[in-house]
Amino acid sequence: MIKYIVRKKKVIGTSGYKYYAQIAPVTAMTLDEVTEKISSDSTFTEHDVVAALAALKMQIVRAVRSGSCVRLGYLGSFRPTISALGSDTKEGVTAKLIKKVNVRFTKGRRMRSALARNMVTFGLHTESKSAAEKA
């Protein structure tokens, strides 16, 4: 179940506000937790899983550095994108205007299906009184 909270946001161009659902803050799953879960669900040791994930990360980094996309089947794909400054002329566009490289993940067919609206349940996150007071 994905827990959500309700946030009030200003409507751009007006003095009004609207309320929106936003995913509630959660504790991220760590690499140790991921490797432990994969290891317990398979015949791989935790060290095997860590080594495989490290190798996968390196291959993704190498591919993105060379401008390639990495397609991981039904999971999805990683591709490089760039953020750059503009120029008034076509000739003025050079590599010096590129400020940074980002990586975009696009979910694959099975992940898209698994995350379809009818496949996920949602619940309103209720904060404890002390957490609500801190905000």
Fold and architecture overview:
The chain is α+β, with helices and mostly antiparallel strands. Helix content is 31%, strand content 30%. It is built from four helices and six strands; from the N terminus they run E-E-H-H-E-E-E-H-E-H. It has helices at residues 31-40, 46-65, 109-114, 129-134, and strands at residues 2-10, 17-23, 70-71, 76-84, 98-107, 122-124. The protein is flat and about 60 Å long. The two termini are 24 Å apart. The model has no long low-confidence stretch (mean pLDDT 91).
Keywords:
31% helix; 6 strands; 4 helices; 135 residues; three-stranded antiparallel β-sheet; alpha+beta; flat; three-stranded mixed β-sheet
Give the arrangement of secondary structure elements:
Elements: E1 2-10, E2 17-23, H1 31-40, H2 46-65, E3 70-71, E4 76-84, E5 98-107, H3 109-114, E6 122-124, H4 129-134
Parallel strand pairs: 1-6
Antiparallel strand pairs: 1-2, 3-4, 4-5
Helix pairs in contact: 1-2
Number of helical regions: 4
Strand percentage lies at: 25-35%
Q: The biggest beta sheet, please?
A: 3 strands, mixed
Mean pLDDT: 91
What is the count of β-strands?
A: 6
Uncertain ranges: none
The H/E string reads: EEHHEEEHEH
Strand order of the largest sheet: 2-1-6
Integer-rounded radius of gyration: 21 Å
How would you classify the helix and strand content by structural class? alpha+beta
Please bin the fraction of helical residues.
Answer: 25-40%
Query: In terms of quaternary structure, what is this?
Result: single chain
- Shape, principal axes of CA atoms: flat
